[in-house]
Amino acid sequence: xxxxxxxxxxxxxxxxxxxxxxxxxxxxxxxxxxxxxxxxxxxxxxxxxxxxxxxxxxxxxxxxxxxxxxxxxxxxxxxxxxxxxxxxxx
Length: 90
Hints:
Residues 33-90 are annotated as: Disordered. The protein is low in regular secondary structure.
């Protein structure tokens, strides 16, 4: 197939990025096939493998620590009654 019509339009578009048509080419492709290199789609990258996350558990509440009681001074204050037992949550 003659390349003359193709070459003129290609020259208008810009410089031809290809093998010169003077280079002996295999008979399979004419020089027109080398005018524009074929667009190759970018290879799809697999997503990076991350280890599976452990199942989400609600954080365990640490036991409430009571501050140490000061030693009872029997001379200044009357003896305190012990606090009523707290209702335990089920």
